[in-house]
Amino acid sequence: MSVFKNLPAAPVAPKKPVTDTRHGMTRTDDYAWLRAENWQAMFKDPSILDPEIRRHLEAENTYMNAAMADTKDLQKTLFAEMRGRIKEDDSSVPMKDGPFAYGTSYVTGGEHPRYFRIPREGAAGDETIRRVLLDGDREAEGKAYFRIAGLDHSSDHSRGIWGYDDKGSEYFTLKVRDLSTGEDLEDLLENTGGGGAWAPDGKSFFYTVLDENHRPSKIFHHVIGTPQSEDRLVYEEPDAGFFMSVGGSLLDDFIYIDIHDHETSEYRLIPTRDLAAEPRIVAVRVTGLEYSMTEGGDVFYILTNADGAKDFKIMEAPVEAPQKENWREVVPHKPGTLILSHMAYARHLVWLQRRNGLPEIVIRDRRTGEEHAIAFAEEAYSLGLSGAAEYDTDIIRFSYSSMTTPSQLFDYDMQTRKRTLLKTQEVPSGHDPDDYVTRRVFAPAHDGEQVPVTLLYRKDTPLDGSAPCLLYGYGAYGITIPASFNTNCLSLVDRGFVYAIAHIRGGKDKGFHWYEDGKMAKKTNTFKDFIAAADYLNQEKFTSYANIVAEGGSAGGMLMGAIANMAPEKFRGIIAAVPFVDVLSTMLDDTLPLTPPEWPEWGNPIDSPEFYDIIASYSPYDNVGARPYPAILALGGLTDPRVTYWEPAKWVAKLREETTGSEPILLKTNMDAGHGGASGRFQRLEEIAFEYAFAIKVAGRM
């Protein structure tokens, strides 16, 4: 029985068939017209969107608002609850760097961060010594959307680069700020990736520029006080399948140019003693070879999967001869122990790894080779390694949390092994960890694998199948969803929900093989794992099929589209945020943002009939059919360059045409934002409150 009553007629998108023939197979797309012909220009100026498309998206928003009208009070209540768990005037613990310590803070009611610094040994809470370098709320005034990319200070602490996006399109404008006066210089750089890498003297920096397909394809060198048109092109990447980023070393000796796709890496180095030097290649790209670098004085430490090290190992090479033939093993490959990242300091090498599904930090004394690990005893938890801003230090910083334990921030002395608790996340409205249970269970998959599932629920929640459940999944790009503290989901848990995270294949939760088994030709394992998680939760009576609301976003939205087609009867509702659902059309169009770099993840259906067939077999949009779909909420962003707005719009139009059920299919398009949704911290909470209100309504718990 549907909980949605007395709805007006849903919008009906006109059909304007477009056919496409590849590899002898012809597809017809009735809703291709929803993609604006001028989409590239529209991302930078949304006002030029085709009026017919705008009318349709606005009609969808009107219908969605009608369907959700009776949840307005609930949304306000949820928002108030979530806001009440945030310390509004919160501040980070400043990180020491030279004569200063740098941090961020928020003011009560503020949407955006303030960037500040204090004298190195000053008291972090002393407002009299705190100098605000950049006030995000002030910069955002009058803008419907505003996102700061960050503030990067120069090594001499005189200036800072900061970037902002005021469209949601992720084209960032860079400015240079005098940190002593707080005034911006005349430098203005457009269409950038959002940050830069300073030269040691603070007079110039390196940055990326995005091309018309939203790919960071060029590295430029900018000298302060000169126009962008005079910037020197340092390197241009001709392969449309590769991204680039630029960064600097802690010792200020090198500028790193990192060139990569999802399975292949290449680094080029510029010595800062000669900023005009041609970038020097470290190891030429070889398909499947990944590596990343950090400087360790006279050596580089290189994290790599070379020579079959699927879960990665750490090598070292002389700074003056870092080429692959000079790499020497330092930390060997251990199958099943995935090294995620590494850092080097004057006396220690540090890395974050995942073993038995749980993270740990390992520290190695560079002089003696002695190693020790930082780990915790909970069944499921999350660790974050932020390291240090200085090279000559024994102190690093890390964070710890679990589904029941608020985040704790520690400084750790690598020499004495002493932990210093700096801060525990405050929950102003109150939180008692003893009221909740967190568990890690394992769901049997179709092929015998065991899928980890992290659970959070109140101790008094009945585990007899009657509890509603929000089951979250992602499963792509090797991204692991951490079992970390999340104050927002408590609004569901406190209403009797079981909150579950399915750590499905496509992520690296159980090592690199877990990622490999959920990509390319094995992509459907991701979807089957998620359904297996739902089966297990139903079987063990944590919930039941009639009470499960599934949620995923972006590539996780593809997951939502796939499970809607494969097992609609096992879900009461589905929330698909910025869902990548038109997979085949997108992967067939190399003019779209990000498509060529995505081929190593999904396959290239342009060149390969095999991958055309594989993607066509699961692409959610292409597999919508006559079946009773559950209630579905799809969310898109008009200026989203990653999952373009027309993907959820087309999907909803086709779902509504094909469904044989009575549940509504809803589309909410944010006309002022892109992939990440609203940019302000409270604006984002309003969006989460809306999504949770949908889940609560669908589950019949209003």
UniProtKB/TrEMBL annotation:
InterPro entries: AB_hydrolase_fold (IPR029058), Pept_S9_AS (IPR002471), Pept_S9A_N (IPR023302), Peptidase_S9_cat (IPR001375), Peptidase_S9A (IPR002470), Serine_Peptidase_S9A (IPR051543). SUPFAM superfamilies: alpha/beta-Hydrolases, Peptidase/esterase 'gauge' domain. Residues 484-700 form the Peptidase S9 prolyl oligopeptidase catalytic domain. Gene3D superfamilies: alpha/beta hydrolase, Prolyl oligopeptidase, N-terminal domain. Keywords: Hydrolase, Protease, Serine protease. One of its GO terms (molecular function) is serine-type endopeptidase activity. Residues 12-424 form the Peptidase S9A N-terminal domain. It comes from the Bacteria. GO terms for biological process: proteolysis. It holds the Pfam family Peptidase_S9. Residues 1-24 are annotated as: Disordered. Coiled coil: none annotated. Belongs to the peptidase S9A family. This is Oligopeptidase B.
